[in-house]
Amino acid sequence: MIRHTVVFTLKHPEGSPEEAAFLDKAKILAKIPGVEKFEQLRQVSPKNDYRFGFSMEFADQAAYSGYNDHPDHVAFVRDRWVPEVAAFMEIDYAPLG
């Protein structure tokens, strides 16, 4: 299993229609084959400046690779992520043992 997570801050003002539109459009990622347990999260810790997070799981590396190469993911990154995300950090986890 691979858990793919990303925390990020958008270029849009907090609570703006643009922010809401980005989060709505991101829901397409949940529909990509192989994606399990997709979540959109609000980051609440005062220890960093990121505002949102996405988390999802994949059964294995093949499923994760299929997600990365899927046309809907590629289009979302190109058309929404790159122009609208100000900063992010991506972490992918695999269980120990």
Shape: globular
The figure for the number of domains is 1
* N-to-C span: 12 Å
**CATH topology group:** Alpha-Beta Plaits
Summarize the structure.
By secondary structure, this protein is α+β, with helices and mostly antiparallel strands.
Label this structure with key terms.
97 residues; alpha+beta; four-stranded antiparallel sheet
Describe this structure in words.
The protein is an alpha+beta fold and 97 residues long. It has one domain (10-91): 2-Layer Sandwich (Alpha-Beta Plaits), CATH 3.30.70.100. The chain has three helices and four strands. The chain has helices at residues 17-25, 61-69, 71-84, and strands at residues 2-10, 36-42, 52-58, 85-93. It has a four-stranded antiparallel beta sheet. The longest helix has 14 residues, at 71-84. The N and C termini lie close together (12 Å).
Question: Would you spell out the secondary-structure blueprint of this structure?
Answer:
Elements: E1 2-10, H1 17-25, E2 36-42, E3 52-58, H2 61-69, H3 71-84, E4 85-93
Antiparallel strand pairs: 1-3, 1-4, 2-3
